[in-house]
Amino acid sequence: VCPMRAILIEDGRVMRDEERCFNCGLCVSQCSGGAFQGRLGAIHLGERTVPIQLRQSDRARAVKLAERLKEEILDGSFGLTEMVERL
Predict the structure, then answer these.
(1) Pick from 47, 39, 42: which is nearest to 23 by CA?
(2) Distance between CA 6 and CA 28 in Å, rounded?
(3) Distance separating alpha carbons of residues 16 and 79, to the nearest angstrom
(4) Is-contact 69 53, C-beta < 8 A?
(5) Does residue 2 lie within any of the structural domains?
């Protein structure tokens, strides 16, 4: 279920309301039928792949934070720490 109600079903077709969608990626990760596709991104650490997820309640803030994260990854100022314990 889309938290922003951006996914609609009209005449048996699944539709995305672009005015409500803020690109959280939930539809891509939850849709087992492949109706939605997207490049959600990941960081590869040795044999592990860590998905990059950034959820915000408004699209403008999410875009701003995603751009900041990208800059920090590219300039090397974003550091990953060792895992404290396995959940």
Answers:
(1) 39
(2) 13
(3) 35
(4) no
(5) no
End-to-end CA, the chain? 26
Among 85, 71, 82, residue whose Cα is nearest residue 46: 82
Task: Indicate the number of domains in the chain.
Answer: 1
pTM across the whole model: 0.41
Grade residue 83 by pLDDT with cuts at 50, 70 and 90: low
**85 found inside a domain:** no
**DSSP 3-state assignment of 48?**
strand
For the segment 9-23, the average pLDDT, to the nearest whole number, is: 82
Q: Let me know if residue 65 belongs to a domain.
A: yes
Q: How far apart are CA 76 and CA 73, in angstroms?
A: 5
In a domain, 80, yes or no: no
> What is the domain extent for residue 24?
7-75
